[in-house]
Sequence to fold (591 residues):
Amino acid sequence: MNLLKTKGLRSFSLFLYSILVAFMANANPCPKPLGTYKFDCDFCGCATTGGNFGFGTLGNTNFIGVRYSYQQFKSKDGIFENSPTSQEHFNTYQVWAKIPIASNFHITATVPYQDLNREFTDRTEQLNGLGDISLIGWYTLNFKKNQIQDEDADASRISMPVFTGHSLRFGMGIKLPTGEFEQVLTERVNPGFQLGTGSTDAIFSAGYSYSKNMFGINATGSYFLKGENRNAYRFGDQLSYNAKVFNGFLVGTNVLAPFVGLSGDFFQKIEQYGDQLPDTNGYMHLGTIGAELSLKRLVVGADIGIPLRQELFADDVKIKQRLLFYLNYTL
Amino acid sequence: MKVLKYAAFGMLLIIGMSCSKDDDKVDQISGEGTLKIEFDNAYAGSDLLLGTSYPGNGTERLTIDTFKYIVSNISVTQEDGTVFTYPKDESLFVIDESDNDSRFISLPNVPAGNYTKISFGIGVDQEKYLQGAEGQGDFLAIATDAGMLWSWQAGYKFIRYEGSFSSDGSTEETAFAIHMGSHGSALDNYKEITLDLPVSAKLRTDIAPEIHIVADLAGVLNAETILYLADKAQIHVDPVKSPQIAVNTSKIFTVDHVHN
Fold:
């Protein structure tokens, strides 16, 4: 009975863990939209490109699922204090999966479809299509407890490793330029928001997790090394972080796990023709709150991100909110 | 475990390859292209709106009806110091806030290069003026139509800044007009301005960079010298205030950004 309970709890926490990790993916919206034509307007729909948006879960369950994200930005459409603003709505639909390769190694993949629109005072611009596909390989290190040799122990008993609940993981991956990047030649008015960055980027990640019973912590940091695209345009490297604390509760036979967290990004300056474009660096920090419900093999989750502090493109661009919904099928 | 190693190795390889820069594209800069310049007029950081009331100096408030100026003698300087001066006779423009097209200047046949500075004059220099009326080409008619000429003898108005103002909280509006120019050949108010570009304008046969210049009107009456409209609301051929306006006006221009 006791054994059963422990086992149940453990698989449950593993389950929660994987779910939460899924949330972490949320930590990486892409380079901020370049809201004004000031910067050649290549405001990358990137905020939504799959590659930069998330990796899938790093936890112990493997899944395939669909995820929807919505991000809202407000940008200045011009260079003056009294320039009009535009509202950007970035909708991203992703198919994402975490597939095991070996006991400590797995691959995550995201294939996004972008639906972006930008509302000006007098017109609306729309763009949709395949975004940037990303692929990451992950290595997980689970820490085991030091086994104290018990003199009285039955020598014939098979010793099972006991995990401490702490784990580290390291990821390395690539983001492919599958989304279209258009160089906007008539820059003056066209904001040119993009389906993808047009570049091949490298992704390096490291994460820490702790879980015990129904409680858990997850933290991940990722560095995006951005490549230059065909238009001699290179989005600034990006450092993203995400941390969450959760606790699960039994609701009948299902589990509900609310959580709170922090996530954010730091962006370097964008380069064009080797020049760093002024005022294209920045940061944002979001507070997140959400919950996840697991119903047998189905996992449903929702997450709201609210900006706490930000300075994007010299304050010409502001993130207003971020929402995330997903439905995963545990493999 | 083997699978893991191969997979990790493969991943490294892909990343390694994707990060290598193609340094083989040595820019062969040659030929000619087009340089574009946009003049954007502002008042104290806000996009200029004609007919809107703005705070002026002290208690003054002003509403602007007209803002026009003459831009001439455009030249651009490359990283290595090479200067290209656009042909003088084709380098005369009237920028008019009420005519949107006039704010965009397009200069064809500029040598390809990486330009880091732009220079231009406000007004018409003495050399050009002294070519006489017939030496002005089409520009004489353009300036006349735009009301940028007093008379041939008196010369060009370099700026026309007009509207109405009130002061000391009064609602009574008084007209003001600032017409600054050289006074024939007696007083030279022509000024040349050189601005650094925040990133170089990379002009190529197939890339027409655009230099976006902002002229902040608040500086016309408040830069090196502060001038109150209440002291003098009509400044035309004023031997003291016109030179002050000329100096102030030479300081209102900034390059906001460059599109490549």
Notes: The interface with chain A takes residues 1, 3-4, 7-8, 11-12, 14-15, 18-19, 21, 38, 40, 42, 45-47, 49, 198-200, 202, 210, 212, 214, 256-257, 259-260 of chain B (CB under 8 Å). The CA atoms of residues 117 and 242 of chain B lie 28 Å apart. Residues 33-259 of chain B form one domain. The helical segments of chain B are 2-19, 126-129, 139-145, 241-249.
